[in-house]
Amino acid sequence: MKVYKLEVMIIDFDGIGPDEMQITIEGTNYPNDCISPRVMNFDIKDIGEWEDSNPLNNVITMKDEFERLFNA
Question: Are 70 and 45 in contact (CB under 8 A)?
Fold first, then answer.
């Protein structure tokens, strides 16, 4: 499983990959066209097989794990 860093964290449960993720984010119709997102750049990390115990699945440990993965 992969995790992508844009300005938000996205866990790719369905394995759609970066190209489809960009299409999904940019192609969503938001109410009243309130935002118009464009993906300019992203970083990808492989986190292996998903387990519910993954630190990214816990609001208490999510930020620290994200920073560890992306050296943020």
Answer: yes
Residue 22 CA to chain centroid, in angstroms? 11
Find out whether 68 and 45 touch, Cβ atoms under 8 Å.
Answer: no
Taking the domains of the chain in order of start, what are their residue ranges?
2-70
Strand 43-46 and strand 2-5: the pairing is antiparallel
Whole-model pTM? 0.67
Distances (CA, A) of 13 to 4, 34, 48, 57: 11, 27, 12, 12
Q: 2-35: per-residue pLDDT in tens? A: 998 886 678 899 999 989 988 998 899 888 888 8
